[in-house]
Amino acid sequence: MPTETGGVPVTHEVDTVLAGLRRHARQLVAEVAGPVRRVRLRSGDTVLEIEWHGIAAAVEPARAPEPAVPTPRPQRPAAATGRVAVRSPIVGTFYRAPEPGAAPFVRVGDLVRPGQVVGIVEAMKLMNEVTAERAGRVVEILVDDGRPVEYDQPLVALDPV
What tens digit of pLDDT does each residue of 46-97 get? Predict the structure, then answer.
């Protein structure tokens, strides 16, 4: 049984803190310009880190700096065929559509332009847009909808145009 603090169960306090962090993170992500690639929150010693457009911004209490977080690698050929892979910017769950039952962001044969959303990766209840960095025609969707993905994993193969 969790110990109580002031008559309130500790698990309830933790749930309340996490719900507040999630609410503030969603609000913050909605307010920043451009697609967010990564959000990191920590309750102990209060850390908030947001990354977008290859730039990282962090708010932390004064202490020794942590090792730098690697930025996502640029897209590179998926194979010797000259194809380019759109890669996952974060670890999470890949979704092809904005919500269940909706049309997918892209289908095989579609033309995409730089910056166009081709999918989303959910991480910690936050939806992170996956965008194409260059123009091309979708030749293959490499990950099934709702499947876990790793950082930098190829998600969509494009033939450059």
Answer: 666 666 554 444 444 445 555 554 444 444 444 446 899 999 999 999 999 9
pTM of the complete model: 0.52
With the CA atoms of 29, 32, 37 and 40 taken in that order, what torsion angle do they form, in degrees rounded to the nearest 10? Answer: -50
Alpha carbons within 13 angstroms on the beta-carbon side of residue 81 total: 11
Please name which of 86, 64, 66 lies closest in space to residue 75, comparing C-alpha atoms.
86
Cα 135 to Cα 158: distance, rounded to the nearest angstrom: 8
Which of 94, 90, 95 lies closest to 49 in space, CA to CA? 90
Q: For residues 108 and 94, give the distance between their C-alpha atoms in angstroms, rounded to a whole number.
A: 17
Helix or strand (DSSP H, E) at 13:
helix 10-31
Give the residue from 117, 103, 102, 118 showing the smallest Cα distance to 157: 118
With left for phi above 0 and alpha for psi between -120 and 50, is residue 84 left, alpha or beta?
A: beta
- DSSP per-residue string spanning 75-115: P-BSSTTS-EEEE-SSSEEEESSSSTTSPPS--TT-EE-TT
